[in-house]
Amino acid sequence: VQLVESGGGLVQPGGSLRLSCVASGFTFSSSAMSWYRQAPGKERELVANINSVGNVRNYLNSVRGRFTISRDNAKRTVSLQMNSLKPEDTAVYYCNLPRSGYWGQGTQVTVSS
């Protein structure tokens, strides 16, 4: 199993970023997927998840209405569109295959002026 994230970076408050995770080594179209984040000195937290067909999505309360999780099963990709970013969104963001123990390497998102 491989999960490879991309799309992080430095953005000003109010800005947007789109994270992507390309998956391989398992049946992606049959698997729910998740995005987590971990800020310095804090526990890793679940940001969003999506079911295998993409019609059920759940969000952390603090990102609901600003972030959107989506997937493209043909491209084996799960994405996280992040709008109206706030400094408190600063963290390393990880792609996760639920209940597997498999994680991506993480991508840094920094929201700062």
Q: What can you tell me about this protein's structure?
A:
This protein is mostly beta strands and 113 residues long. Helices cover 0% and strands 50% of the residues. It is built from no helices and 11 strands. It has strands at residues 2-6, 9-11, 17-24, 33-38, 45-50, 57-59, 67-72, 77-82, 91-97, 102-103, 107-111. The strands form 2 sheets. Strands 2, 4, 5, 6, 9, 10 and 11 form a 7-stranded mixed β-sheet that branches. It is globular. The model has no long low-confidence stretch (mean pLDDT 97).
Largest sheet: 7 strands, mixed
SS-based class: mainly beta
Helix content percent band = under 10%
Q: Count of helices?
A: 0
Broad shape: globular
Number of strands: 11
Average pLDDT, rounded to a whole number, is 97
Q: How big is the Rg? A: 13 Å
Q: Please indicate the percent range of residues in DSSP E strands (runs of 2 or more).
A: over 45%
Order of helices and strands: EEEEEEEEEEE
Low-confidence stretches: none
Report how far apart the termini are. 37 Å
